[in-house]
Amino acid sequence: MARIVGGFGISHTPSMGLEYDKGLAQGFSPRWQKWYDGTRGVKAWLERAAPDRMIIVYNDHLNHFDFSAYPTMAIGVAPEFRQADEGWGLRPFPSLVGDVDLGWHLTEKLVRGGYDLTVCQDLAVDHGIYSWLPYLMDLPWTIPVVPVAINMVRHPIPTSERLHQFGKDIRRAIDSFPGEDRIVVVGTGGMSHQISGARFGIANETLDHYFLEKLKDETEELVAIPQEELMRLGGTEAAELAIWFSMRGALSDKVKEVHRYYTFPAITGCGVVVYEEPA
Amino acid sequence: MSNSIPFNLDPPGTYLYTGQMATKGFKLTRFGLSLRDPANRERFLKDEAAYMREAGLNEEEIRLVLARDWTGLIEAGGHLQAMLKVAATVGQNLWHIGAHNAGMEVEELMRICPRTVSALPEGEK
Ligand SMILES: [Fe+2]
Description:
The complex is a heterodimer of chains A (279) and B (125). Chain A is of the alpha/beta class. Helix content of chain A is 35%, strand content 20%. Chain A is globular and about 45 Å long. Chain B has one domain: Dioxygenase LigAB, LigA subunit (Protocatechuate 4,5-dioxygenase, Chain A). Helices cover 57% and strands 2% of the residues of chain B.
């Protein structure tokens, strides 16, 4: 049977992507050089982990969906996922390769298991994935992915408990996926930040470090924190941390933390933590 | 507005994007998101008011956009992500929105960011 070999949680922000392009062209600014350097270990790990497929739980920022119909939880099942134009034009990257087989398998198991997922056979992906992916993967991008989009732009958003359980059910679904494939699960959401209102620019590094410290072994404690509390202390967009619980839920309690990095370049806490399953 | 950051989710510090906000700002948000399309960006820039009238915005909403009143737009239910498309189209960015919301100049906001606070959930040290 297929098996999950590890996973990671990682921040995303539009500037992370734009700074990557600038950095490659003319050198990184000192703030983003740190993030670039900090992610080298993750890139190396990913190359070693050599996944055949990846599941990426992320959130869209009104770049594909709009409020005519905004799904609370959606799964992308298509041979490819194009990059979304966020309003400043496309960045020089190709579409993501989609994993149709795993996508339908997860859809089958998860919908029958009680998740009323919106299935997207055409999905444009925004900085939720495109901002960090270039740091971790050289072109051409060949590993097929299943993106899962969680509503984080309009309340109510899915609860932390639900997203944690969702990860556990992804794990169960993988157990019945035929073949010997190696699968990596990613959860991505901004850490502390708020990008509107007079609290714009709030940065609670203490909270972010606390989260990274506890995610592996004290998950339940983090999951029990009301999302309002995360938003109060870390800014409204810190609610996106709840997405990381799906990644954690998809991994076993035997995982080993193999990499962790955190910095605060400008507006958003940028963190990454990598967990590996025992061989 | 000083650099002190309140730990609550009330305006003007925070405008939580709820269902009611989404209803109030439905057209405004839809208008902003229409600018994801480069052809629409071009049409908008040619005649902002005409484009917005066609998009069904009312006179007050049009006035807020023309005035680049980012705070007023967010209060009117325009989703930040949608207003960001408007800002990008007119040559502004997230910092302009943030500075307007925080009541300071862009340079000042950039200088004080990250606005570091330190606090953990109830009962944690
Ligand atoms: Fe996000």
